[in-house]
Amino acid sequence: MSMTFDTKVAVIIRDDLAVWQKLNVTAFLVGGLAGHNPNIVGENYMDASGNQYLPMIVQPIMVFQADTNGIRKAYQRAMTRDVNLAIFTSDLFVTGNDIDNRAAVADKTADQIDLVGIALRDMKKTVDKVTKGLKLHS
Q1: How many CB atoms sit inside 10 A of residue 129's CB?
Q2: CA distances from 17 to 37, 73, 88, 136, 138 (A)
Q3: For the segment 83-99, what is each residue's pLDDT rounded down to a tens digit?
Q4: How confident is the model at residue 103 (pLDDT cuts 50, 70, 90)?
Q5: Is 1 within the bounds of a domain?
Q6: Are 65 and 137 in contact (CB under 8 A)?
Q7: pTM above the 0.90 mark?
Q8: Residue 2 maps to a domain
Protein backbone atom coordinates (compact mmCIF):
# COMPACT_ATOMS: atom_id res chain seq x y z
CA MET A 1 0.00 0.00 0.00
CA SER A 2 1.45 3.34 -1.05
CA MET A 3 1.05 6.38 1.16
CA THR A 4 1.25 10.00 0.17
CA PHE A 5 2.43 12.68 2.53
CA ASP A 6 1.70 16.40 2.74
CA THR A 7 5.15 16.85 4.25
CA LYS A 8 8.65 16.16 3.07
CA VAL A 9 11.77 15.23 5.02
CA ALA A 10 15.13 16.46 3.76
CA VAL A 11 18.70 16.20 4.97
CA ILE A 12 21.36 18.40 3.40
CA ILE A 13 24.97 17.30 3.87
CA ARG A 14 28.06 19.28 2.95
CA ASP A 15 29.76 17.57 0.04
CA ASP A 16 33.36 17.88 1.28
CA LEU A 17 32.94 15.62 4.32
CA ALA A 18 34.48 12.18 4.65
CA VAL A 19 32.00 9.32 4.12
CA TRP A 20 31.97 8.40 7.83
CA GLN A 21 31.19 12.05 8.66
CA LYS A 22 28.31 12.19 6.17
CA LEU A 23 26.78 9.06 7.67
CA ASN A 24 27.30 10.26 11.23
CA VAL A 25 25.81 13.70 10.53
CA THR A 26 22.81 12.19 8.75
CA ALA A 27 22.11 9.83 11.66
CA PHE A 28 22.31 12.62 14.24
CA LEU A 29 20.11 14.97 12.20
CA VAL A 30 17.41 12.37 11.56
CA GLY A 31 17.39 11.60 15.27
CA GLY A 32 16.66 15.27 15.89
CA LEU A 33 13.74 15.21 13.48
CA ALA A 34 12.29 12.10 15.12
CA GLY A 35 12.69 13.64 18.56
CA HIS A 36 10.90 16.81 17.52
CA ASN A 37 8.22 15.05 15.44
CA PRO A 38 7.37 11.79 17.24
CA ASN A 39 4.35 11.34 14.95
CA ILE A 40 6.68 10.53 12.04
CA VAL A 41 7.87 7.39 13.82
CA GLY A 42 5.84 4.29 12.99
CA GLU A 43 5.08 1.08 14.83
CA ASN A 44 7.55 -1.62 15.84
CA TYR A 45 8.42 -4.21 13.22
CA MET A 46 8.02 -7.93 13.83
CA ASP A 47 9.33 -10.78 11.71
CA ALA A 48 7.62 -14.14 11.14
CA SER A 49 9.75 -15.68 13.91
CA GLY A 50 8.25 -13.30 16.47
CA ASN A 51 11.34 -11.09 16.85
CA GLN A 52 10.48 -7.47 17.45
CA TYR A 53 12.47 -4.53 16.01
CA LEU A 54 12.42 -0.82 16.66
CA PRO A 55 10.22 1.48 14.57
CA MET A 56 11.51 3.77 11.84
CA ILE A 57 10.45 7.05 10.29
CA VAL A 58 7.36 6.37 8.18
CA GLN A 59 8.14 8.54 5.17
CA PRO A 60 11.01 8.76 2.70
CA ILE A 61 13.98 10.95 3.57
CA MET A 62 15.55 12.88 0.72
CA VAL A 63 19.30 13.35 1.21
CA PHE A 64 20.88 16.24 -0.68
CA GLN A 65 24.47 17.38 -1.04
CA ALA A 66 25.70 20.96 -1.13
CA ASP A 67 28.90 22.94 -0.93
CA THR A 68 29.41 25.44 1.89
CA ASN A 69 27.53 28.18 0.06
CA GLY A 70 24.67 25.87 -0.91
CA ILE A 71 24.08 24.64 2.63
CA ARG A 72 24.23 28.23 3.94
CA LYS A 73 21.68 29.33 1.33
CA ALA A 74 19.34 26.44 2.25
CA TYR A 75 19.76 27.35 5.93
CA GLN A 76 18.84 30.98 5.24
CA ARG A 77 15.83 29.96 3.16
CA ALA A 78 14.64 27.72 5.99
CA MET A 79 15.13 30.40 8.62
CA THR A 80 13.17 33.01 6.65
CA ARG A 81 10.31 30.50 6.42
CA ASP A 82 10.38 29.69 10.16
CA VAL A 83 11.20 26.04 9.47
CA ASN A 84 12.33 23.99 12.48
CA LEU A 85 15.81 22.70 11.74
CA ALA A 86 18.20 20.17 13.14
CA ILE A 87 21.76 21.39 12.57
CA PHE A 88 25.19 19.83 12.75
CA THR A 89 28.28 22.03 12.81
CA SER A 90 31.93 21.25 12.20
CA ASP A 91 32.59 21.88 15.91
CA LEU A 92 30.51 18.84 16.83
CA PHE A 93 33.09 16.47 15.34
CA VAL A 94 35.40 17.23 18.28
CA THR A 95 32.93 17.29 21.15
CA GLY A 96 32.15 14.11 22.98
CA ASN A 97 28.68 14.57 24.40
CA ASP A 98 25.38 16.38 24.08
CA ILE A 99 26.21 19.03 26.70
CA ASP A 100 29.39 20.03 24.87
CA ASN A 101 27.55 19.88 21.53
CA ARG A 102 24.95 22.39 22.70
CA ALA A 103 27.67 24.61 24.21
CA ALA A 104 29.59 24.62 20.91
CA VAL A 105 26.48 25.78 19.05
CA ALA A 106 25.59 28.35 21.74
CA ASP A 107 29.09 29.84 21.46
CA LYS A 108 28.49 31.02 17.87
CA THR A 109 26.07 33.44 16.24
CA ALA A 110 23.95 32.15 13.36
CA ASP A 111 26.39 33.76 10.89
CA GLN A 112 29.42 32.14 12.58
CA ILE A 113 28.07 28.58 12.64
CA ASP A 114 30.05 26.35 10.26
CA LEU A 115 27.21 24.16 9.02
CA VAL A 116 28.01 20.69 7.73
CA GLY A 117 24.43 19.40 7.78
CA ILE A 118 20.84 20.45 8.29
CA ALA A 119 17.60 18.48 8.38
CA LEU A 120 14.02 19.60 8.12
CA ARG A 121 10.47 18.36 7.84
CA ASP A 122 7.79 20.70 6.61
CA MET A 123 5.15 21.01 3.93
CA LYS A 124 6.40 19.69 0.57
CA LYS A 125 6.25 23.12 -1.08
CA THR A 126 8.33 24.69 1.70
CA VAL A 127 10.98 21.94 1.65
CA ASP A 128 11.16 22.21 -2.15
CA LYS A 129 11.85 25.96 -1.82
CA VAL A 130 14.54 25.38 0.80
CA THR A 131 16.28 22.69 -1.27
CA LYS A 132 15.83 24.41 -4.66
CA GLY A 133 18.88 23.91 -6.87
CA LEU A 134 20.45 21.20 -4.68
CA LYS A 135 21.28 17.76 -6.04
CA LEU A 136 20.37 14.50 -4.38
CA HIS A 137 23.36 12.92 -2.69
CA SER A 138 25.13 10.40 -4.89
Answers
A1: 16
A2: 27, 18, 12, 15, 13
A3: 999 999 999 999 989 99
A4: very high
A5: no
A6: yes
A7: yes
A8: no
d(CA 135, CA 112): 25
- Within a domain: 62: yes
Which domain, by its residues, includes 121?
7-136
Q: How many domains, the chain?
A: 1
- 117: helix, strand or coil: strand
How many CB atoms lie under 10 A from the CB of residue 73? Answer: 17
Interatomic CA distance for residues 45 and 124, integer angstroms = 27
What share of the chain in percent tops pLDDT 90? 94
Neighbours of 90 (CB within 10 A): 16
The enclosing domain of 28 has a CATH number of 3.40.1490.10
Q: What is the pLDDT of residues 28-79, one digit of tens each?
A: 999 999 999 999 999 999 999 999 999 999 999 999 999 999 999 999 999 9
Q: How far is CA 43 from CA 15, 55, 56, 116, 136, in A?
A: 33, 5, 8, 31, 28
